[in-house]
Each structure stands twice: as C-alpha cells, then as structure tokens.
UniProtKB/TrEMBL annotation, chain A:
Its main location: membrane. The chain crosses the membrane at residues 47-69, 81-102, 147-167. Keywords: 2Fe-2S, Cell membrane, Disulfide bond, Electron transport, Iron, Iron-sulfur, Membrane, Metal-binding, Oxidoreductase, Respiratory chain, Transmembrane, Transmembrane helix, Transport. Belongs to the Rieske iron-sulfur protein family. It is a multi-pass membrane protein. This is Cytochrome bc1 complex Rieske iron-sulfur subunit.
TrEMBL record, chain B:
Residues 13-239 form the Cytochrome b/b6 N-terminal region profile domain. This is Cytochrome bc1 complex cytochrome b subunit. PANTHER family: CYTOCHROME B. It comes from Brevibacterium daeguense. Its cofactor is heme. Residues 519-544 are annotated as: Disordered.
Amino acid sequence: MTSKQHTAEHGTQLEQVNGFTNPGLPEHTPRLTDISPAAERTTERQIAGWFILSMIGTIWFIVSYFLFAPDETMASIQLQNMMFGLGATLALFGIGVGLVLWGKTLVSGTEVAEDRHPIEGNEEDQAVALEILNQAKDESGIARRPLLRNTLIAAVAIAPLPAILVFRDLGPLPGDKMFTTLWGPGVRLCQDPGGVPREDRFIRAEDVTIGSAVHVIPEGMHESEHPLDEKAKAAVLLMRIDPKELNTDPAKEDWGVDGIVAYSKICTHVGCPVALYEHQTHHLLCPCHQSTFDVTNHCEVIFGPAKRPLPQLPIAVDSEGYLVAQRDFPEPVGPTFWEINTRETSEQ
Amino acid sequence: MSTTQPTTAVGKAALFTENRVGASRLVKEFGRKIFPHHWSFMLGEVALYSFVILVLTGTFLTFWFKPAMGHTIYEGPFVPLQGVEMSEAYASTLAISFEIRGGLFIRQMHHWAALLFMAALSIHAMRIFFTGAFRRPREVNWLVGIVLIVLGMGAGFTGYSLPDDLLSGNGLRIIDGILKAIPLVGTYISFFVFGGEFPGVDIVSRLYSLHIMVVPALLIAVIAVHLIFVVYHKHTQWPGAGHTEKNVVGEPVLPTFAAKAGGFFFMIFGLLALLSGFFTTNPVWNYGPYDPSPVSAGTQPDWYIGWMDGFLRIIPGWTEFYIFGYPISFNIFSSVLVAGLLFGGLAIWPFVEAWLTKDYREHHILDRPRNNPTRTAVGAAGVVWYLNMWAAASGDLMAVFFHMSLNDMIYIFRVLFFLGPVIAYIVTKRVCLALQRKDREIILHGRESGQIIRLPHGEFQERHKPLNEDRLWSLASFESPQYIPAEPGPDGKISKIEKRRAKLARFFYEDRVAPVTKSELEAAHHDHGEVEQSRKDELTGSQQ
Ligand code: HEM
Ligand code: FES
C-alpha cells in the first residue's frame, strides 16, 4: 500500500499555516552535468579517478605488508601501521567519494515526494484485529477458566526461581574477607617491586628518609594464592615526616616509628590507589577523583568525594631492625561497604 | 512469474531469486523509499556504519584475544614489558598489537569506531531532541534510541575493560567501589560480579561473553527495531516548499540514496582507517598490566563514560552518612542516580512536553530549534549539565592547564552543576526569542540587500529585498506553542493536576514570539509603499 507515489506532483496537499500557502515543490534546477555533455564526461572521468585512487590504496596496503615488514621495534610497527592506514584510507575514501560524487552529479537529482500512510490501521483493520483477539480469548477459554489462567500465571512466575540458585556460584560470600588483609603482627614491610616479581626486599627505618614515600606490600604476598587480590587490600604507602609536623592522636602515639607512618593506599572513595604524595603539604591525592588526605592528621579527608580517612597501619621495628606491622589494619580498607561497622578487624 | 524468459546471466539469477524469495515485492516496497536530504539526517547513518565496522573489526580481534586472567611472564617483542608479570588477556592484547600484522591497525579501528559510534549516537539524539522529531508517532522510537545509547555505553565499557591494562583495571576498581556502595546488598553483588574479591580471576572472561555476545546481540536486535520504526513512520522533514505533514520529500533509495549512502559508508570507513593509521588511541602498552597499587595521574575513561566519572569528582564526601552504623554512600552510588536522571529525563520528555502543551497530534515536519524556545532551552540546559560533569572528569588536567588550584576547579564545577543549566536555559530561551524576532523582521521587511537608497525627502534607507515564496514558507510556516490555561475536565471542574499543568506550562511557554501571519505581512508591505514606490521610480523592470 505504501510508496506508490513515485513521481512528484507539484503542489499536492497544500495547506495553510498562519495564512500562508505552501508553494509546492520547487522546479528542479538542472545541474551542470544535466545540461552539458562535456561537464558530464569530465565528471565521469573524475569519478573513475577516485575509483582508481582506491585501487592504488589497496595495492599500497598490500605492498606495505611486505615492504614495511616490522622488525619488532616499536618504530617499525608504527610505521607499518601508518602505511596500512594510508593504504586503507585511500582505498576506502576513493570508493566513498567516487560513489557520493556519482550519486550527487550523475544520478537524477530530482526530489520526489512520497505520501505518508496513517500510522494506525483503518477502522476495518482494527475491527478485524479485535475480532481475532476475542476469538482467541473465547477459543482458549482464558477468560472463562480462572483456575487455569491463575495457576499458569503462578507457574510461570516462579519458574525462574531456580535461576537464582544456579547463579549463586557466581561468587563466594564475602565472609570476613573485607575485614582481613595479609598484614598482622610481625609481618615485614617490603618494597613493592612493581610488575617484575623478585625476592621480598625488607625496609629498615633508616632507609626511609624525611620527605620520601615508599610503596609497600606485605612480606610473602607473591607466594599467596591470589597476589593481586591481596595487593588490592594490603598496598601501603610509607612516609617519613618530621615528627614535629605530625598531629598525632595520643591513642595512636606508638603507631609510627620516629615520624615514619604507614597508611593504606586504597582510597576510601571507590578504591583507586592513592599514589600522589605532595611533599610540602603532606597531602595525599587520589588521582581518580582527587580526594585529598592530610597525612599530618591521620589522613583525614580534606577535600573531595571520599568520606573516611585512610586507615593507618600501626608499625614497629623488629629485632633485626626491619619495619613490621604491629597488627592488621584496625579498620577495613578501601571503599565503604554496607557491613563496614558490623565487626572488628582482627587484632592478630 | 515474468512474462519473458531472461537470457542474460544476471536476468537468470534474478529470476531464480524472485521465484524463491519474492524479491520483487521488497524492491517495490523499499526501492523508492524516500530519504530527505539534509546533513542532520546522516548522523544516525554514521552510528550505523560505525557499528557495522565494530562488528567486523571486533570479530577479527576475537581470533587472537584470550579472555583469561591466568598469569604469564611477558616474553614478546615489546622490550619495556619483557619479564613483567601480566594476565593472558593483557599479553594477548600486546600480541594483537605487535605480533599480528595488521592487528594494531584493526585494534585501533575497533576503538576509534567505538568512540565514533558513541559520538554519532549522542549527536543524533540531540538532533532528534532539538527538532522535536520525538513527537507522536515517534515517541517509542525515541525510547528505543535511548536504550541504544545505554547499550552502547555498556558495549564500550565492557570492551575497553577487556585488555586488563592499568587504566581499564582502575575503571573496574571504580565499578567495584560503586557496587560495594549499594546499600544492603552491595558487598554481595561485588563478590558475585568479580567471582570473589576484587580483581579476582573471572571478571575478564565474564565481560568477554557480555562484550562479544550479549551486548552486540541486544544492540543488533534493538537497532533492527529502531530501523523498522524509521521505515514504518517514514522520515520527518524540515519545513520547506512542498513539504507537508502528509508527504515526505527527498531522494529515492534506488539509485540516488543508495549511491550516496553506500559512498558515505566507505567514507566513514576511510575516516576510521585514517584515524587508526595516524592517531593512537588506548596505547595499552604504555599503561602496563593491571596492578592495584600504581596509577598514573590524569586517569580518564573513554569519553562517553567520562561524565559519570566527572560526577564522582564533583560530589563532596559529606554526602556519605551512617544510620545505626550502616553507611549510605550517597557520594558514590549517586553516580548511578545521575545516569538514571539523565536517561530517565530524556525518556519522559516527549510525554512531559505533550502534557504541558496539550499537543498530542502527529508531527512529521520538524521544528527549527528557535521556533520552540522552551524545548531548545531545556535541551541546552541538559547539554550544559552533561558537559559540566564531563569537563569535571578532566578537572585535574584543566587545573594544570589554567594554573588553577584543583580544589577551586572542583568548586566551580560544583556551582555550575546547579547554576549552569539554569543559565543555559535562560540564555538559550532569550537567544531563541531574539532569533524569532529577527525572522519576523526578515519575513516582514525582507532581506537586507546592502543597497542604500535616498528617499525623495532626503532620508537614507537600506533597500530590503522581499523573500521569495519558498524561503518565506520555510521561515513562516510554523506553529508557536502557546500556553494553554487550565481547562475544566469532563466533569466541569478543573482538576488539581490540570491546575499544576497550567502553572508549569505558563512558566515554560508564556514568553513567545507570535509567528508572522499573512495579513501582517500584507499590512507591512503596505507601509513600505513609500519605499517600494521610490524604488520603482529609480529602477525599471526590477524583480517583483
Ligand atoms: C560483535 C561485536 C563486537 C565484537 C565481536 C567485539 C570484540 C572485541 C574484542 C575481542 C575486544 C578485545 C581486544 C582488544 O582489546 O584489543 C574488544 C575490545 C573493545 N571493544 Fe569490542 N567488540 C564488538 C562490539 C563493540 C561495540 C559495539 C563497542 C562500542 C561501543 C565496542 C567497543 C570496544 C572497545 C572500546 C574495546 C577496547 C579496544 C582496545 O583495546 O583499545 N566493541 N572488542
Ligand atoms: S577513588 Fe580516590 S577519589 Fe575516587
């Protein structure tokens, strides 16, 4: 029923708006290519030129596959990538521009009007549809048999319940995982080796100079079952600040060693590593959303979206002179979670 | 069924197909379907073509990508990472980039196509909004379009999290934090999503099945619905000579539109090839494998996720509070609420606008944005609100650039979060009204011709050329929605809701510039008689 009107009828369906009448489709103004055979031929050649350029691009792509075979250096890989890009751009753009030019200049440019059809069915359609639905209702008896209907609805409604069960094993329950880390009494602080695994490197108090910040992990982390999961909770930043500058809470007096303090590196906002330490101000800045923590005041939040201070790891020096944890973090690390205040972290 | 037997190979093939699939009806139905030609109608096409390219390039990537988080030590050709511990996912992304010839190119193309896909979708949606193309009968397709944007964001996020690099790993960490902030069940949801503690060893393979199967399947299905609606409703069109509510004017699919659209597809493909060859996006090799401890400054997600990240930066920490020791981390999960607000607001707008203006009619002729100042202003307010959040995601970089303190920068974003949309609303509305007045001027007095004439009594005036009929129609043939005061319902009483509607409608629609009417125009021409007369004295046989 649709799209029968293939030809423009000038001035069809004129209607008035604000008293003005629709002037109807304007006459088609012929293009140069419509009237001048010479222009038409030039354009034809131009378009063919684009298609030829495309072929050159394709060939260039193939050539660069061999000509610019990378030798495993970054520069050579990028050079080949660039040459591929050049070839593909020409190949694709050539076809694209050629086709568009063809459509714009040589294919008929007359605008055509097509009638719209009403969106809704006509009255007869609607009546027939209603009749079919009513018939289905009667024949199935869905309205007359409430027992069947209701039990069916109930059956379908509870049928997905087992899915909840089988999805149960997507993950274990949290248990006490949110309240424990690898830190504990006597666990030595080690320098974070970054991506390259190596033997634990312990830290002596005198290695930590004033103004320095050391990225720290617990000893033995790499031997644990899931080192990254452990690191995501246990990463610590160790800083040494002139004790005169620290406003230490009397209850936490012995949590540091001569101005060396250790704080969780996991932001209490949504968990990014708080890795930027400003030496002058003793502020820690989270690069993700710029929460700012004041190291001189037990890492209170002084700006940004985080609410809780970074948990402090109480540290001491062991008999061999290495820095060790006194215990696990006194409060959970990382982002806030619902059960956060429901239990104590382990003293052990 | 044809009357003559085909003799050529093409003819025979055509007959073979026809007798088996009845292709003639398709050609008849769609072959001359009309596409209006205006650049703003190509935005949807850009989105569609980018999606096609995403499917093609993405399929290529699946042949080598290993969605696994088992640990390996890198021994590939990229020297800076040799000996580094990383997941198989990250290692295989490096392999695609450095060892599969053309792999880097296709990876780049996949990512660039994703960026373009989302940009085209967003701008396309803006054109629908600002022209009022969402009005009846297209409200449902507007909703379908919003679903597409949400799915696109999902596709993008699940995609760029796959390589398991430092940047995307931090993105996942943020998702973990947001999940954990959900009251009551958050911790459990996080454990179920990550298969235990963050980051665990499951998330990449889970994202993978979402990214290459579930989301693309949904996208393809929803795109299909979207296009079926477009065909069924036919296109809207701009006001213009010969354009009516009952027709659609443009070019037929065969051959004009097919040639142009086909060409356009290749141009988009070419553009992506150009970007992929010469501009690097997501150089995961520079970021390193995911590790929960290091992070680089200036971390940012792909642009279409940025606004949610920006919101997380704007909201202050005091919005987290505790009830009986249980946290309500509004500072965190509100990012989800903000997304709900944006998409929810977009979703209900067509219905709100119809309700406010009591205009439930079908509309196939678009509004020029200035001719619906209220809608345009509301849209501008939304855009500013969005852009402010988006800019906030680069607050740290901007602070460095403008030599400002980061905190001041965030304060500005906080103020603009509330004030920006209001200012945008007021300014845009005024600008629209001013533009409408200018249109009135032009319609009533013609275009400025740049020619100065001297009247007999010595006064100088610029001669104005009257508009031609077609242009006049394009400018003058619009309705200006006028505020409808509260009307009594069928029971003869004015309901409370109706009163509220009238109040709101009055606030939004009271200021308006009435469109020029024919009689006004005639009266204006009459006043110009003097000028016209002098022109006739001066020139002979000039244009009417
Ligand atoms: C059938 C469709 C698709 C398939 C089979 C597919 C497949 C893939 C694969 C295997 C990867 C990982 C490889 C890599 O990171 O290099 C990937 C990455 C990605 N995908 Fe897709 N994808 C599809 C659709 C999409 C869509 C619709 C979007 C976006 C809106 C998208 C956005 C991304 C992004 C941003 C990446 C990251 C690329 C990077 O590493 O730089 N993908 N996709
Ligand atoms: S994660 Fe640190 S501020 Fe958001």
